[in-house]
Amino acid sequence: MLLFCACVFYIKKGFFVRANHALWGVFLPVFLGLSGCLPSEMTVKKAQLDSIDQRLTKLDQTLIQRDQAHFKLVGDYQTSVEKQQAVLKKIEADVSSLKKQMAAEAESRAEKKTQTRPTDTKQIKNQSGYLYVGDKLVIGEIEDIYLRPVNLELEGRIDTGAQTSSLDAQNLTVFERDGKEWVKFNFVDRQTKEVHEIERPVSRFVLIIQSNTQEKDRRPVVAFNLTIGNVSQVVEFTLTDRSHLDFSVLIGRNVLKDLMLVDISKQKIAPPEISSPQKESAH
What we know:
This protein is α+β, with helices and mostly antiparallel strands. Among the domains are: 49-102; 132-262, Cathepsin D, subunit A, domain 1. Helix content is 39%, strand content 33%. It has 5 helices and 15 strands. The protein has helices at residues 2-13, 15-18, 21-34, 46-121, 253-256; strands at residues 123-125, 131-133, 136-140, 142-148, 152-158, 165-168, 170-177, 180-188, 195-201, 204-209, 216-228, 231-240, 249-251, 260-263, 279-282. The strands form 3 sheets. It has a 6-stranded mixed beta barrel. A 4-stranded mixed β-sheet has the order 1-2-3-14. Strands 7-8-9 form a 3-stranded antiparallel β-sheet, with no helix packed on it. The N and C termini lie far apart (128 Å).
């Protein structure tokens, strides 16, 4: 207001009348602006400022809520990690305890084996003169065996590497009897050269892959009552042509398991006990 009054005063004195018209056009708007006389559109309305303030307030509230949610997530994560660590510690403790138990059991078993080893490995002759280790019959690498019901005493080779036993069969023929498969074959006694014709029901068939040709050979399996020493048991034999091999009978692990031990340094130490009663066992 004071500036406005000064302008009027100098106008009355003729000061601005004498001034340059260009300067007049420049300074007049400045004086008017400083005196509060600018147009209303150059000022910021209060309503706009209030709206901006409200938006800022809402933004602050949103940021606060997000911070609170973030802090909650961090707290939950830390709690979860602590729980998992507690579970892992418990598992480690359980594993450690289990290892100790297993070590104690292994040590106990080792002590028992050490205590029983002298008795288990000692060969003892029974009343019939057969060698035993514990409750197992000791046999040699080659033994005489007895087959029923064909009543043949044969020389057989003991092979701990063979899973099943095998018997020589010539002119083998499969036929049907009473709705079941049977097999007929010739067996040649290599000591007497006598040919025995044998018929037996087929228990099953097996596929054997020949190592030299990789061809599959389908062989019948039949059962006999086999006696070695004073032990008799029902045993399955695969039938095949063994005429080119040294022994017509091969005794595998299906005969030996849980009943016999093999001393490969000896032969024919357990002749079959035929006349007296025998221990019966089925395999």
